[in-house]
Amino acid sequence: MTQASALPVAISCGEPAGIGPEIAARSWHALRHEVPVLYLGDPDHLPEDVPVVCIDQLEDVPEVGKTALPVLSHRFDGPLTHGRPNPDHAQSVVEMITTAVTLLKNGAVSALCTAPIHKKALQDGAGFTFPGHTEFLADLSDTAHVVMMLVSEQLRVVPATIHMPLSEVPQALSPEVLEQTIRITHDGLIRDFGILVPRIAVAGLNPHAGEGGKMGCEEIEVIAPVLDKLRGEGMDLRGPLSADTMFHAAARATYDAAICMYHDQALIPIKTLDFDRGVNVTLGLPFVRTSPDHGTALDIAGKGIANASSMIEAVRLAARLGRIRA
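Above: the chain sequence. Below: its structure as tokens.
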């Protein structure tokens, strides 16, 4: 598939009172000769200096997108005030996500890049019951299990457990959860990144990977048996490894992705290596979904100072993964 004939990447607007519309517009401007994009949302929420064309025919997106941001227009109820989410907008924010999934299912777009949502605003204004984008997209696509991967040029990393207190991690880290995480990561590296024989490094939970049981037994009782089982199926797995020696340059060169046991163990290294350009990729969905690795940034919304680097990389990666799946 050539760039000229490539299907567009859909960008859902996210929380309009945040920086989503601004960074979406800037990603279009940065990539307009590289990636066709289609913005889903209210055109009035976009920065005033951005040329916009509301379109009816999706085949017009590549040509229109060279000089203006193509928008699949949906007018939101109620006024927009930067930095202050309007509950009247919540239902429309949800509808933009569902519209994007419909376009994906119909083959009208190649991938989805989601601008950040404000979960409390959606709960208050639309009765949104999902913890976030990822769980909602899994529900819309009837997907039982998904995995969050953070991607940069230097590192791909997956947390086996995500948003929970550290005290709850050992109980949540079951053999089933870890095996599922490794399988989805392995399949995602093959399907989405074109790595035919993925090399996966797996961290231990405890310091020094438990040091033979002296500092915890999760490595012996939970992690190692899962790795042994999957190695028996032919997977190239290293670990359990001491997390403090996994992320220097020489170590990173030995694997294609690292699986960590909890949120900060995974996110600290990637944000240290490339704070501004990390991308969130959801593995396990029947379509490509990426997002910038940050939130709505309500405190700087509308000021024109938001760093769009992560969004630009998220759109670029969405297009690349969409081409691989095509």
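The chain has two domains: 9-145+277-325, 154-272.
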